[in-house]
């Protein structure tokens, strides 16, 4: 294309928002059913990637796109690469710090799809809490924050942990997993709540031992996605562009409510279009 016919252009689907922007502009965190809907779509994408021997290696909320139908897309494959069996050494300097798996932070050079699944767990927690779960500013601070919340790992729960290069300089000695305190079943303090099944999935995504960390395919079959409360995606998170224009012209809450009520309910995932 072009005047000299020597240029190539790729026309891609337009997506209205990335997930980080949506989270930052929402007045409240995603509720559990909304999180379930987004997580199901994310896990479908990861299952497809991993079954085709591709690791993303940079999953984070700003690399997930959400359109006005509540459909989630994975983007930015700049650090993605194919992997094989047996595993080969790769650089551990991948994945944005807040979403980086502990084996990478501790210097592991052989890793697989489990590093993506840790990132998925961090994203799930961020959807529920409206803030990153582990927001360290350095690698040392990041691993300290992980150990403070999940407890310092031991060889019996993570075989091979003591042989990782970074394990020799770990200072935090915290024997207890405090993740449930951050996501209780019932909260009177404003903390995000999470059902037993939801917490089990989150806990399995944030398992230290990458060999025991839940896979994307297994996660899709988790009982959390079969709970009575069906996955939903609210119309007020990502609005149709025409609706947004009307709301911007008239920010009256009643007008917003009327705009939402004109949406057509699609049943599956409770998406409005």
Automatic annotation (TrEMBL):
Protein name as it appears in the record: [RNA-polymerase]-subunit kinase
E.C. numbers: 2.7.11.23
Residue ranges of every copy of the Protein kinase domain listed in the record: 1-225
GO CC, any one term: nucleus
Enzyme class: transferase
Xref: Gene3D superfamilies: Transferase(Phosphotransferase) domain 1 (1.10.510.10)
Keywords: ATP-binding, Kinase, Nucleotide-binding, Serine/threonine-protein kinase, Transferase
One BP term from GO: regulation of mitotic cell cycle
Catalysed conversion reaction: [DNA-directed RNA polymerase] + ATP = phospho-[DNA-directed RNA polymerase] + ADP + H(+)
A GO term for molecular function: ATP binding
Family: Belongs to the protein kinase superfamily. CMGC Ser/Thr protein kinase family. CDC2/CDKX subfamily.
InterPro entries associated with the record: CDK, Kinase-like_dom_sf, Prot_kinase_dom, Ser/Thr_kinase_AS
Any Pfam family: Pkinase
Species lineage: Eukaryota, Viridiplantae, Streptophyta, Embryophyta, Tracheophyta
Entry-linked SUPFAM superfamilies: Protein kinase-like (PK-like)
Keyword Chloroplast attributed: no
